[in-house]
Write the structure tokens for this entry.
Amino acid sequence: MLLYIHIPFCDSKCFYCSFNSYTNLFHLKSDYMKALNNQLQEELKKTNDHLKSIFIGGGTPSSIEAKLYDTIFLSLQNFINIDTEITIEANPNSTTLEWLTHLKFLGVNRVSFGVQSFNDQKLKFLGRNHNKEMALNSIQLAAQAGFRNINLDIIYDTAIDTEKLIKDDLEIIKTLPINHISAYGLTIEEGTKFFNRPEVKIENIDMASFIFASLAEFGFTQYEISNFSKNIKARSKHNFGYWEKEDYLGVGAGAVGCIGSQRYYPKKDVQEYIDNPFSYEDIEILNPEDIKFERIFLGLRSLAGVPLSLFNDKQKEKITLLLEEKKVTLEDGILFNNNFLISDEIALFLE
Ligand SMILES: C[S@@+](CC[C@H](N)C(=O)[O-])C[C@H]1O[C@@H](n2cnc3c(N)ncnc32)[C@H](O)[C@@H]1O
Ligand code: SF4
């Protein structure tokens, strides 16, 4: 079982981001954390086992004082063991040594920084409220606080990217005390400032391939279309769990949980969530075909792969063609995609 916890507060709204987060609701944060803890205690009744991973994401978890996480970790104490991966997202503008040290003391063992780029112009273009220096500083602080598992999120495929800009970013990445990179191609999302400016995205497969190859040269192995790690141990258990369709609890306003064929959505609105953290906005029942397609789709995007037993005879015929064209590989009954950049096409071909 995995657990996702959502913190719906941000200091500012980035131009590309459609995540459930608010810049004007900080006065609700104490009430929110109480409601979150109440829902968490209820959700934990759904499992008897230790959690494989916990991901505290947002929004901006570092915009909430460290002490406000104490009760959450008290509720979690019987569900965490030495192997539980516990990640928290942090933004360079709000990360301090005290915050990092306290979260580490509570049991967090992985920090994920939303860096996006080290180029100040690109950061402005994306609507970020930090600069290169703040990003570098926060990464050093995490290392100083004793974190050995540090991820950086970066964004590419933007209109401001040039070969030089990307190369400069990669040169910096090479020198940092990090063991994981999540590199996302910009997507244009409804409800964001970028939605009416689709020209800000420029898809450039050559640039993506260059980024992937450079990261490989620095020792980061790609294990999913957007994820790269320095070694197998540094791969995110949480991500892998999602791709292998493990069950996950979803706690917080706008979180999503999925147990078996039931996907549930706690309230998105922060005040409504505080008023009733136990009532879901929606419960979706997934049919077996949907579950299978999602498993195939996610498996092909990552080194999780897809067990051959999930495919029907017609699909297996198509797989023979893909094997002949060397687009996929079969190992011990698991099908692996050889090029993550075409994973969606392969999934659709097999549909
Ligand atoms: C859930 S967000 C929150 C992270 C954290 N608040 C931060 O921004 O520093 C996680 C990551 O998703 C990525 N992301 C969000 N929206 C995106 C978009 N429209 N296109 C590409 N990447 C996006 C960003 O890299 C971001 O750091
Ligand atoms: S990218 Fe992160 S900081 Fe920016 S609005 Fe989204 S959640 Fe908030």
About this structure: The first strand starts at residue 2 and ends at 7. Residues 288-350 form one domain. The CA atoms of residues 220 and 230 lie 4 Å apart. Residues 10, 13-14, 17, 19, 21, 58-60, 91, 114 surround iron/sulfur cluster (ligand 2) (CB under 6 Å).
